Amino acid sequence: MPSKTSWINKELIMQSLRSVGWLGIVYFMGLLFALPIDILGKLTNPNLTYYNNIYENLFKMQYPIQMGLLFLIPVLLAVFLFRYLHVKHPADFIHSLPIKRNKIFHHALLTGLGILLIPILLNTLFLLGLYWITELNLYIDAADIFAWAGITLLMSFLFFLTGTFIAMVTGLSAVQGALTYIILLLPAGMFLLVTFSLKQILFGYPTEYYYNIQIEEYSPIVKAAMLENKMISGWDALIYAGLTILFYVLALLLYKNRKIETASQPITFKLLQPIFKYSVTFCAMLVGGMYFTEVQGQGYWMWFGYVVGALIGYYVAEMILQKHWRVFHHWKGYVVYLLVIGAASFLFQFDLFQYEKKVPEAGSIKEAYVGYSYYDLFNSDSEIMMSSENGFVPEIKRDPMLKEEDSIKAVRNLHKAIINKGETSTGYDRMPAFFYYKLEDGSTLVRSYEIEQGDLKEYYSALYETREYKEATNDIFHIDEEKIDKLTLHQEYTAGKTVTIVDPEEIKEAIDILKKEIYNESFDDQNRLSTFSVEVLLSNNQRTGISIRNTYDEFEQWLRDKGYLEKIKVTADDIDWIYVIDKKEHTRELMKADYPGDIFPKLKEQGTGLEINEKEKLNEILEKLSYERQQNPYLVGIKYKGQPHVEVMGLTEEDAPSFVKQALE
């Protein structure tokens, strides 16, 4: 009776272990020192009383070591395990054996998976042992250990299978290693490059929003790099498991159809060679466009960068494929590529899809947001984060979304005005404008612009002066007055000037007056000088602040009546000197300076402006100052006593006292 032949070939396994077994030992020892030994050391150290990096997240333990092992070991394992495919003699030898390709592939693959599995499994058992016999169970749950093990195993398998798939595509080990990381980073990298280019082509494209909100979703390496602060979700785990299986299937299919003689070839399949060539060309084109745009700062340089980047990428890819540098006669493919890209760019450049002109209809908008950026909108699900002794915790819930009809109308009118005005030339006086719409059908529309706010004053005023907008953008309307312990008034520019209000009745009066002042505040008033601020301390030791502008006459009168104003208000006695200049006369100096205040001491010595010393004039000009410097004709340098630097404010033509105009005519 014939004996059965075992499917397991010990010689194949031993051959693989001889070449890659050391990687398993390195992985095991690295994880052992990064987790069990490090945790044991912390638990037995009498000088440590807090173990935040233990109980928050096991990935915080020796995070650089864990990530280094996770990113390096699986890829190296794939490179060394399938090295035989990339060298002619080993490839000929192993495929001449009476063993099916399917069996050879699976022996190498399962050996690699085992080398990854065993170190993770052993360290998981050590962690569970520590959990049961030490105080580790006071800081983490057993579920945290299993979560760490599961995520580490999943990401290791994904990186390994990615490297295995790439091993079938190329015949060079160096190319395999490089392409593995490129493939893992490609979605995020392409997202960054394409998004940057769309920002230059499409007016209003919200590049920063996509960079910061969604970028980690496009690359498993980026996602893994964030494990210290954010664990992957169940949905992410399913996607990565699916990708791991997909790379396994593709690798197996390619292995079965791979020709042995393609060892040492950069790309082993003819069908994939043009894909590789034009992918490299496209990526190099986007990098070139980004580089020249960032360096030169002008849009037309982007197109120059596209042409140069594509040219470099095309010929580098050709050199890799041909394995020599004499490839410059292959120019027709480059010309065809430029024609195709030019036609595609035409669609975006002339906005044939009406992206730039799109503003949602009022009836389709559920709620809208407009501000300088998305940070307030996405700050902990619209919860304002305020400091406390215990860290940062959500206390005041302020919904930044606008829902009322007049507010949405003002947002739409502002948005349409920005579109009608078009893109403004690059300048330091431009301000960001970020729009976010939630529509009735559940979709969103996001736009971001750089605009000159002064040209849109009418539309900003209509929005800013709506009651809902002020309530949505000011914390004071969402504070429970019964929970306020005290108000502390701080001088903005001079140290030591503070006033504390603890009387509940006075606190209530002050808050009521401040609410009224904000309701009555105009858009122009928001740029007025704020010489002191009010810090609100709540009963749970959390704080928020309110800036007090020099237009808050009723609040100032209330402070005067209570005897607080003279203790906090900036007066001529707090100032060394004030110097006023005509901005247009000093354009060159201002452009060269890192900060406008740097030029005032020298201008004061030269006597090219107006120095104000009289107390009455000092107090008069202090009442007129504005934070807006770009749109105002006069700049005012203020040297406060005890301050090493010069504060610079703006002064409008209308607010400038007659003695200033006469002196600077």
From TrEMBL:
Asked whether the UniProt record includes Transmembrane among its keywords, one would answer: yes
Query: Which segment of the chain is annotated as a signal peptide?
Result: none
Top-level division of the source organism's lineage: Bacteria
Question: Which key words tag this protein in UniProt?
Answer: Membrane, Transmembrane, Transmembrane helix
Is-annotated flag, keyword Magnesium?
no
Membrane-crossing ranges are 20-43, 63-86, 107-133, 145-166, 178-198, 237-255, 275-293, 299-321, 333-350
This protein is called what?
ABC-2 type transport system permease protein
* Organism from which the protein derives: [Bacillus] enclensis
